[in-house]
Amino acid sequence: VSHDFNHNPLSSIFDANHTKVSGKLLKVLSWYDNEWAFSNRMLDNCLALHNAE
Questions:
Q1: Rounded to 5 degrees, what are φ and ψ at 10?
Q2: The pTM is what?
Q3: What is the pLDDT of residues 8-51, one digit of tens each?
Q4: Where does the record place the Glyceraldehyde 3-phosphate dehydrogenase catalytic domain (predicted)?
């Protein structure tokens, strides 16, 4: 259930059980908390810039 992934620091979680192949079509499902994951990536960028100085 999507609410199980709220406040997860990862950008997305791959759901292998919902991966399907049909001929040349590949369907992949990934769960994510859009705002939380984006905020975590922005923090990663700020820390990387700070550590680069």
A1: -75, 150
A2: 0.58
A3: 888 888 999 999 999 999 999 988 888 888 898 999 999 999 99
A4: 1-32
Pairwise CA distance, residues 53 & 47, whole Å: 10
Two structure tokens written together for 28: 């992949």
Find the angle CA(34)-CA(31)-CA(13) to the nearest 5 degrees. 105
Task: Using CA atoms of 15, 17, 20, 26 in order, give the dihedral in degrees to the nearest 10.
Answer: 20
How many helices and strands in the chain, by DSSP H and E? 1, 2
Q: Report the C-alpha dihedral over residues 28, 30, 35, 41, rounded to 10 degrees.
A: -90
SS3 6: coil
Q: Token pair for residue 11?
A: 């950008």
